[in-house]
Amino acid sequence: MDQENLSTVQSLSTNFDNCMTIGNPSSNDNAKNLLYSKPRQLTDDDCTKLELQDKRGLLSSFINAKLEKEAAANWDKFYKRNETRFFKDRHWTIREFSELLGLPENDSSITPAKKRLLLETGCGVGNFFYPLLESGLNLKVYACDFSARAIDLIKQHEQYDSENIVAFVADLTQESCLSPHIPERSIDLVTCVFVLSAISPSHHGFVAANVASVCHHGSVLLFRDYAVNDMAMIRFKPGSKISHRFYVRQDGTRAYYFTLEEVVKLFADYGFRCTEGGYLHRRTTNIKEGIDAPRVFLQAKFVYERP
Ligand SMILES: C[S@@+](CC[C@H](N)C(=O)[O-])C[C@H]1O[C@@H](n2cnc3c(N)ncnc32)[C@H](O)[C@@H]1O
């Protein structure tokens, strides 16, 4: 790792974050993660692969429009194939997002009797929020996804409890998609975990606007997603590039790779101030599959300051 680029924001310890491109990576629980202010630097080999991606040009606007139109259907098929087996439960979340604990000394309005309201955007089958509820956090969860099948799987989970979990189908790119399901400006915590990368960058502003519409002054937004120069971005083959840092996988789902600056600006435009953020560098190793690859994610925290 390039020490000159190192600007540690916070020292973190985490499990591996399961990824879309590598089936079942082994993890090193003792690995220390750091947040860096700069993304991973490209090797010469990476640069060659990125140049190759461009050789066949970008996908046509016709295909791009088709992918956009079929986005929900493609994720639905994904959950039909994989059901709850693909993503692993995310057990790193409390360690890295201590805001989830909502310590009462930081907020006098929080009492043991008062649940905080958490909105999980693009919740999939609940790998983020079910572990939080299991660990006893006093939360009421609003969980939305545009795959109806994912929402059905959430409702079939053994810990599903309709008092505590409001799971609903919503397309985050559609105006006012959240307000019919959520009391006005009631959400204390929002999570955007590997969801915005699945959405066209031209629609990210709509998602941020929807999220802002249900937040109150002081709400916290927690973000983790793919970062620029991640190994999975380099591995895309020619013919899978939609636009700058935006790709389509073989199953029709899409992946965008973020820079810190653009995430900070995206949410700032809708009233969220970034309190912490950086690139999370990891190495994924899987001896059986001969994989040893650099992964890089983007992690950031925001506070909503209602204009
Ligand atoms: C990579 S998965 C992440 C799931 C979950 N956040 C997790 O961490 O396990 C991305 C999810 O975003 C959902 N998604 C993609 N675009 C969406 C949109 N426009 N509106 C709502 N959900 C969307 C997909 O259906 C999928 O469940």
Explain how this protein is built.
This protein has 307 residues and is α/β, with parallel strands linked by helices. It has a single domain, classed as Rossmann fold. Helix content is 24%, strand content 27%. Strand 4, helix 6 and strand 5 form a beta-alpha-beta unit. The N terminus is likely disordered.
Amount of beta strand: 25-35%
Report the major sheet. 9 strands, mixed
Shape: globular
Sheet/helix structural class: alpha/beta
Task: Give me the number of helical elements.
Answer: 9
CATH topology: Rossmann fold
The H-level CATH homologous superfamily, spelled out, is Vaccinia Virus protein VP39
What's a concise summary of this model?
This protein is α/β, with parallel strands linked by helices and 307 residues long. It is built from nine helices and twelve strands.
Based on the model shown, name its key terms.
disordered N terminus, globular, binds S-adenosylmethionine, Rossmann fold, 9-stranded mixed sheet, 307 residues
Please describe the topology of this protein.
Elements lengths: L10 E3 L18 E5 L7 H12 L5 H9 L1 H12 L10 H4 L19 E6 L7 H6 L4 E7 L2 H9 L8 E5 L17 E7 L10 H10 L1 E12 L4 H4 L6 E3 L2 E3 L5 E3 L3 H9 L3 E15 L4 E14 L3
Parallel strand pairs: 3-4, 3-6, 4-5, 6-7
Antiparallel strand pairs: 1-2, 2-11, 7-12, 8-9, 9-10, 11-12
Helix pairs in contact: 2-3
